[in-house]
């Protein structure tokens, strides 16, 4: 290992006494030494690495002596322009020495954002015609390499790079570390910010400890990470990523969690973002006045008035807070105001020594985040109906097409039309259970010139509206829609369920019957843009209808949890749905309890979100024939096989899930734990008896099980975690 004092003295003896750059964890001991031993005008921590090249060039022009630029290899991207258009021998021919920390060195474990940088560090330097050496770990050899570099840049008047491996320098503790007296820790501030942000919003967090602390917060609550884009690299660009997302998702608030060093690095993005006038863009800067994760080297953030800066760049609102007692109000104010808006939170330096790192790969984070962006905006509190008029006003709505059930609408008409007061709307209710293509096409020919569609009803009404909107926007028939790949979405669609079961308001699927044959149509533009969930709308349904719908919500959640397509996110939604069902299903059906009704409406919505990711499995596949031939409602039909299917899956034979036998056994064990199941048959027999669902097929008039089994939806069977034979399927039902 190399003593940093010896390294520095060698540079100084060769008249290389001007330093600038962006601190790096591999160079932190050297950077700490020069911070303690070099006057501030001779050691400049720059906004970005390109700035450092320019500073070094200015120093050379003024003194004739080369400068030393320190950086992580990721900073090479910021350097290329000034290296090639300023210091290059074919332009101004300006010498400088680059000290580059080699993150992502091949065959050395590192974070994912560094892997590619490590592989191409030498290739970038070669492409820029910059000579380089890898610094040896032995002191005398290292000093020889350094002397060679000093001689090269002076003789050739060209840049030279020294690549520095992890563990090259001996430890040096910064003595003159800047400290602040802020009372908030960054981790606590991040927790409070993430907690207050509504469930429809997303967070783009900058690279380093901010993303790690946000990840740890979600882990502590066993929440999925799909609402957070953890920017593991691209320092300084999180705000621009967030703005790009905000443009395309105007109904979701987009929060950027930034650090002061990252903020300063590409501060030029601020006026560009401000000019876009993004009402949904919220910028939070956690300012500890330091590059915290790379040695706590100071930034210039202590000299910046973030409130005035944001306002001068065109942000609509800006706030600053440095005390815990003021943070909650500041975060609440940020959530309420129209963006672009900025909140500076002044925090202490430092982080937990045991701070973890994301377990998922960046690509996995990207995929789950993009899936969440496709989910609709939902309002699920007990005052959710008040959002109807707010949304309509945001869209400057002129003509509303309101799809409703023929009879179900009457008992909730007052609540809905109260929110539609002052808006022009037309009601269409010629909708039968299980939407038919010809009925949708009839409506398409009849209904014209609407700029907003609202569906108020059960699964059939919502599916009808979903398919209608798709065809309406694309000027096609229902049959043509089944083969439509290139589609547009123009007319906003709001779904307001009046049953607590299907979760149709949360899915990109819709069922339609073409000439008596059932089709399940899937497209991202089938998903409603908004979902309004409210227990008032489902509380007074007939008891049998409530039981059928509740059974559907419960079975969907169970099937989603064990589906071969399940993800961390879908399992989270399914778990929440099962927990709500377990606690509230009997109270909802047997006592007409308003709170229980709201919780079951939420359970149905969450089960819909779960199957929107994972799809359903064998119980649903078996249900369709039962509903069609025996007129048994869908939820009741699904419930008939769920206990038998759980037992078959628990045996974990003929595994169909690549995650394997142990994974499946653990999954079934988790379901049983969530629902407090000790004996599968007893649990479901007791539950369905209490809510009034008959499970015996003969009593329901079903005698031909083979016919049901032979007609099963094979695609849904593929989602089941075990491969099922016809013999297995026959055993699922109680005769």
Description:
This protein has about 725 residues and is an alpha/beta fold. It has 4 domains: about 5-165, 3-Layer(aba) Sandwich (Rossmann fold); about 185-370, Rossmann fold (3-Layer(aba) Sandwich); about 375-535, 3-Layer(aba) Sandwich (Rossmann fold), CATH 3.40.50.1970; about 550-595 and about 610-735, Up-down Bundle (Dehydroquinate synthase-like, alpha domain). About 45% of the residues lie in helices and about 15% in strands. The chain is built from 29 helices and 22 strands. A 6-stranded parallel β-sheet has the order 2-1-3-4-6-5, sandwiched between helices. A 6-stranded parallel β-sheet has the order 8-7-9-10-14-13, sandwiched between helices. A 6-stranded parallel β-sheet has the order 15-22-19-18-16-17, sandwiched between helices. Helix 1 (about 5-15) crosses helix 2. The mean pLDDT is about 95.
Concise structural overview:
With 735 residues, the protein is α/β, with parallel strands linked by helices. It has a six-stranded parallel β-sheet with strand order 2-1-3-4-6-5, with helices on both faces. A six-stranded parallel β-sheet has the order 8-7-9-10-14-13, with helices on both faces. Strands 15-22-19-18-16-17 form a six-stranded parallel β-sheet, with helices on both faces. It is elongated and about 100 Å long.
């Amino acid at each position: 290992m190399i003593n940093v004092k010896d390294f520095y003295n060698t540079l100084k003896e060769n008249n290389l006494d001007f330093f600038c750059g962006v601190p790096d964890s591999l160079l932190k001991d050297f950077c700490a030494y020069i911070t303690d031993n070099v006057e501030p005008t001779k050691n400049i921590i720059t906004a970005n690495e390109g700035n450092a090249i320019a500073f070094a060039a200015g120093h050379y022009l003024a003194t004739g002596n080369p400068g030393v630029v320190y950086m992580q290899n990721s900073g090479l991207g910021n350097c290329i322009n000034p290296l090639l258009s300023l210091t290059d021998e074919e332009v101004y021919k300006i010498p400088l020495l680059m000290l580059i920390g080699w993150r992502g060195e091949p065959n050395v474990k590192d974070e994912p954002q560094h892997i590619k940088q490590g592989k191409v560090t030498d290739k970038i330097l070669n492409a820029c015609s910059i000579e380089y050496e890898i610094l040896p770990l032995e002191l005398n050899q290292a000093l020889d390499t350094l002397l060679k570099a000093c001689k090269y840049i002076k003789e050739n008047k060209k840049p030279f790079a020294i690549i520095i491996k992890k563990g090259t320098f001996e430890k040096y503790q910064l003595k003159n570390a800047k400290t602040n007296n802020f009372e908030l820790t960054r981790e606590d501030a991040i927790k409070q910010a993430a907690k207050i942000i509504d469930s429809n919003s997303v967070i783009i967090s900058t690279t380093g400890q901010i993303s790690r602390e946000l990840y740890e917060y979600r882990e502590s609550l066993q929440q999925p990470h799909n609402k957070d884009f953890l920017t593991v690299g691209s320092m300084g660009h999180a705000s621009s990523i967030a703005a790009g997302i905000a443009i395309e998702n105007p109904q979701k608030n987009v929060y950027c969690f930034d650090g002061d060093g990252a903020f300063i690095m590409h501060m030029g993005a601020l006026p560009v973002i401000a000019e876009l006038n993004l009402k949904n863009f919220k910028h939070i800067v956690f300012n500890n006045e330091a590059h915290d994760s790379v040695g706590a080297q100071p930034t210039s953030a202590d000299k910046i008035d973030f409130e005035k800066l944001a306002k001068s760049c065109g942000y609509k609102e800006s706030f600053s807070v440095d005390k815990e007692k003021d943070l909650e109000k500041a975060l609440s104010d940020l959530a309420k105001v129209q963006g672009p808006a900025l909140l500076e939170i002044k925090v202490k330096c430092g982080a937990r020594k045991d701070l973890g790192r994301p377990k998922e790969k960046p690509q996995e984070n990207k995929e789950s985040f993009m899936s969440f962006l496709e989910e609709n905006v939902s309002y699920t509190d007990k005052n959710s109906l008040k959002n109807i008029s707010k949304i309509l006003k945001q869209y400057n709505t002129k003509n509303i097409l309101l799809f409703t059930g023929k009879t179900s609408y009457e008992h909730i008409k007052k609540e809905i039309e109260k929110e539609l007061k002052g808006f022009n709307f037309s009601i269409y209710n010629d909708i039968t259970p299980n939407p038919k293509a010809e009925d949708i096409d009839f409506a398409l020919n009849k209904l014209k010139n609407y700029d907003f569609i609202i569906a108020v009803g059960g699964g059939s009404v919502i599916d009808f509206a979903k398919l209608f909107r798709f065809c309406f926007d694309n000027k096609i028939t229902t049959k043509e829609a089944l083969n439509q790949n290139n589609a547009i979405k123009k007319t906003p669609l709001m779904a307001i369920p009046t049953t607590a079961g299907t979760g149709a308001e949360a899915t990109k699927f819709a069922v339609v019957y073409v000439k008596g044959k059932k089709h399940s149509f899937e497209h991202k533009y089938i998903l409603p843009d908004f979902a309004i969930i409210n227990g008032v709308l489902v509380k007074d349904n007939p008891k049998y209808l409530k039981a059928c719908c509740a059974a559907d919500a419960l079975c969907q959640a169970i099937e989603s949890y064990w589906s071969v397509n399940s993800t961390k996110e879908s399992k989270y939604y399914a778990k929440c749905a099962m927990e709500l069902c377990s606690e509230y299903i009997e109270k909802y059906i047997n006592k007409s309890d308003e709170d229980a009704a709201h919780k079951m409406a939420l359970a149905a919505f969450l089960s819909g979100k779960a199957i929107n990711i994972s799809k359903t499995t064998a119980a649903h596949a078996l249900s369709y024939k039962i509903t069609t031939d025996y007129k048994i409602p869908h939820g009741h039909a699904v419930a008939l096989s769920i206990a038998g299917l759980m037992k078959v899956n628990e045996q974990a034979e003929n595994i169909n899930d690549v995650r394997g036998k142990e994974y499946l056994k653990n999954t079934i064990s988790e379901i049983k734990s969530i629902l407090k199941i000790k004996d599968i048959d007893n649990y479901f027999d007791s539950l369905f008896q209490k809510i009034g669902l008959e499970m015996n097929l003969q009593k329901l008039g079903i005698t031909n099980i083979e016919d049901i089994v032979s007609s099963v939806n094979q695609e849904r069977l593929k989602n089941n975690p075990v491969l099922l034979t016809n013999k297995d399927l026959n055993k699922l039902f109680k005769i």
